[in-house]
Design goal:
- This protein is α/β, with parallel strands linked by helices.
- It has two domains: 13-67; 73-223, Rossmann fold (3-Layer(aba) Sandwich), CATH 3.40.50.450.
- It has nine helices and five strands; from the N terminus they run αααββαααβαβαβα.
- The longest helix has 27 residues, at 15-41.
């Protein structure tokens, strides 16, 4: 408790996020305890429950490290004739989510540029340079950067894009992921302090619900 107090000094502790994380982490322990109770009731003593939990945690960590790539930045203009850009993502589910989010934002009157539409067929060193240049052009062109910070730790490319946009234009950050790296706060303080707005999204929200909240934040920026 003393360490948590020291680590969170001067910052806001996200109690709902901590509760969600606590519930998520306690589920395997509860099932393991129930399994032990049931096995003992039938006369079988399982002395390997801790080992089974450790093996499951190890496999989960390996799979997560192989498959998880984090989020990506979205740049959007917040005026009447909006235009914007969405950064490339690396997994099919993430690309589909970005495509739906783009469509919802277009329906709200925002124009959105989606680099993944142009770059998912490209490979190689030259293509990487072209993708980087296009990404920088998109951020320069947009009025507002809206960054998806999903993942236990936000994607390093997304963080770079937020840093590049800082002091040039508003930066809005959001996350739909309840996982928290280190269990202290959903965002690094460098992100929260540099962001113009933080959109609070409930875990597992639909792309439509996320777009509604982003649109609300953009309208607030327009009216400032």
């Amino acid at each position: 408790m003393g360490f948590l107090t020291w680590a969170a000094a001067g910052a806001t502790i996200p109690v709902p996020g901590l509760l969600v994380g606590t519930i998520g982490l306690s589920v395997p322990l509860i099932f393991g305890a129930l399994g032990g109770v049931i096995s003992e009731r039938v006369g079988v003593v399982n002395v390997a429950i801790e080992g089974q939990l450790l093996a499951g945690a190890f496999v989960s960590a390996v799979v997560a490290s192989i498959t998880d790539t984090g989020g990506a930045a979205i740049a959007v203009r917040a005026d009447v004739a909006d235009e914007g850009a969405i950064d490339v993502l690396f997994k099919t589910a993430e690309q589909e989510f970005n495509s739906r989010l783009k469509q919802h934002l277009i329906e709200y009157g925002h124009g959105v540029w989606l680099p993944q539409d142009e770059s998912d067929e490209q490979t190689g060193e030259k293509a990487a340079t072209e993708i980087f240049s296009k990404d920088v052009e998109g951020i320069d062109w947009a009025d507002v950067v809206v960054a998806n910070m999903d993942g236990p730790d936000p994607d390093s490319g997304t963080c770079w894009e937020c840093g590049y946009a800082y002091r040039k234009k508003p930066v809005v950050i959001f996350r739909t992921d309840f996982r928290i790296e280190g269990g202290i706060a959903p965002y690094n303080l460098m992100l929260t302090e540099s962001a113009t707005k933080i959109v609070t999204v409930q875990p597992f929200s639909s792309s439509d619900a996320v777009a509604q909240q982003i649109n609300h934040a953009l309208l607030e920026l327009t009216n400032q």
